[in-house]
Amino acid sequence: MVHRYLHELTLSYFVELITPSAATHSRAGLKWAELGTVTVPRTYSSRGDRAFAVAAPRAWNNLPLSLRVTVSSDCFKRNLET
């Protein structure tokens, strides 16, 4: 779901839940295209850690860089399985 939102922009309801890191870090050299990460919101309880808005970005950021920057959905799915 995160991949589809970031690369195809078809899931518009994720706008409030998932933010590319480049949108929150404007320092030179920290480009989303280079890192492929998204911002993980801060939580104050273990219950908050299980919310989609926290769990999805954390899982996405734990993927290898080569997988995060894959644009094609078919390639992403194929590589995710391996």
List the helices and strands and how they pair.
Layout: H1 2-8, H2 32-35, H3 46-49, H4 52-61, H5 65-68, H6 73-81
Structure report:
This protein is mostly helical and 82 residues long. The chain has one domain (2-81). Helices cover 46% and strands 0% of the residues. The longest helix has 10 residues, at 52-61. 10% of the residues are buried. The mean pLDDT is 78.
Q: Can you tag this structure with a few keywords?
A:
82 residues; globular; mainly alpha
Topology order in helix (H) and strand (E) letters: HHHHHH
Helical fraction equals 40-55%
Number of DSSP E strands: 0
Total domain units = 1
* Uncertain ranges: none
Mean pLDDT: 78
How far apart are the termini?
A: 18 Å
How large, in whole angstroms, is the Cα Rg?
Answer: 13 Å
Discrete helix count: 6
Summarize the structure.
By secondary structure, the protein is mostly helical.
